[in-house]
Design brief:
The chain is an alpha/beta fold. The chain is 43% helix and 16% strand. It has a 7-stranded parallel beta sheet, with helices on both faces. Helix 1 packs across helix 8, helix 3 packs parallel to helix 4 (134-157) and helix 4 runs parallel beside helix 5.
Length: 282
Amino acid sequence: MSAAGPLPLVGRRVLVTGIANEASLALPIAQVLRASGAELVCAGLGPTPYHGALSTAAEQYLGGAREAFESTVREHLGADVPELIADVTLDPSLEDLAETLRLRDLQLDGIVHAVAMDRTIRGGAAKPLLQVTREEFLDCMSASAYSLLALVRVLLRAHVLREGASIVALSYLGAERVMSHPYRNIGVAKAALERLVRELAAELGPTFGMRVNAVRFSPWSRSKAGGAIPGLEEAVAHAASRAPLGNADPASLGCEVVHLLRPGLGVTGEVRHVDGGYHVHG
């Protein structure tokens, strides 16, 4: 990138969410951001004071999540990248995140929202929608969609999101279509996420000059979440054969995120596709 001109994100600090381990899609995005000159702050899951009484299994899960998050950031992004623990489904935890950023004077110019969770996909099987409980539906919506709104709100209240900042959320074609592989409950949540992107673009633009966009990526089965979706590997192969350019790789996704985060871009409220053109097929 430097050979073609100045790095586009020099002097800009970006909060990256969703790095769980080295297979997370958020990781290659963060690597491209850093190569483009961005200063990174990473937020990941781990135990917080707001989880209350936990079972031994839950404590072990959260402790393991924190260890995997922190070790991944240090190994692949560098020991100088701040690692902050937050549970995006708990408002007090997000408030702590915002307050930590404020106290450390870590003003943000961008956010990458790459968080999603769906408990109806387990062990290589996905529940039909008619079997999804209210709790499962709302948990998925809370983590995968509402968390964007909750995160932006606390950062604004703490005055750590700079005027003119850019926000990018990761989505998928399953927000719009019924897919060949089960993407039922999470697809509904991703549709809500995209609607939030448009509404936030309309609200944050006039008041703060902020941009909000979403990017739909090619089917991706290498992450823990993607690998749990039944039939996704076959869907990856199908999309690769049908897409005019074949499936996009994570570096291409990272380049699009960099583009949307760069200053001076008059693009907001968009749902972009980085999928090799697969979406053009009906």
